Every structure is written in structure tokens, then in C-alpha cells.
Amino acid sequence: MSEDTKLQISVDQTMCPVCQNRLAFDPILHHMICAYVGPSSDFVETTDGYICPKCRRGIASSDPACEIVGTSARCGACGKEMIVSPGASGA
């Protein structure tokens, strides 16, 4: 497995599979203007929303040009990043 390969974990997993420390979760955003896809932590937070790390444009909170496409998890202890598998949505 290459160094930048991301692990995939289940939606109910809260501990890092690498070092067993607690995970932090972020939505994965897709900025359709420049095609950047990354965790919300990559975007600079402003009072009006975010700034895209790729094109540096402002993104308002309700901007239809930016969508949530998934969830990522990151371990604060070892730094490993993971993709969270979508879970079954219950009503």
C-alpha cells in the first residue's frame, strides 16, 4: 500500500485502525467551480462560509457550487487519513 493510499472505515468506527486513538471527522466538500475535492478542514473558514484552497474564491454557506460528497476521518495522533463508508440511513 502506498503512503498516500487512504484506508476506508465504517461509519460507526470512532477509533483509528492504525494506532487506536480517537478520530476527528470532516465532511468532504466538492467545489464545482474549480473541481477541488477535500475535507472541510482544507478550506479556510470565514464569517460568510469558506475560501477554497485551490482557487481562493469565497464560498457562501448556501452556495450551490459547493456540495458535500462524503466524510473523511483523521487521526490526531498518527495523522492517518481515512474515507468513511456511507452508512445505511435510518428514518
Keywords:
five-stranded mixed beta sheet; elongated; 91 residues; mainly beta; three-stranded antiparallel beta sheet
Description:
- By secondary structure, this protein is mainly β.
- The chain has a domain at 30-84.
- The protein contains no helices and eight strands.
- The protein has strands at residues 7-9, 23-31, 36-39, 44-45, 49-51, 58-60, 66-75, 81-84.
- Strands 1-8-7-2-3 form a five-stranded mixed beta sheet, with no helix packed on it.
- A hairpin with a 4-residue loop joins strand 2 (23-31) and strand 3.
- The chain starts with 6 loop residues before the first strand and ends in a 7-residue tail after the last strand.
- The model has no long low-confidence stretch (mean pLDDT 89).
Write the layout of secondary structure elements.
Elements: E1 7-9, E2 23-31, E3 36-39, E4 44-45, E5 49-51, E6 58-60, E7 66-75, E8 81-84
Parallel strand pairs: 1-8
Antiparallel strand pairs: 2-3, 2-7, 4-5, 5-6, 7-8
Largest sheet: 5 strands, mixed
Number of helices: 0
Elements, N to C (H/E): EEEEEEEE
Task: Categorize the overall geometry.
Answer: elongated
Quick gist of this model?
With 91 residues, this protein is mostly beta strands. The protein is built from no helices and 8 strands. The chain starts with 6 loop residues before the first strand and ends in a 7-residue tail after the last strand.
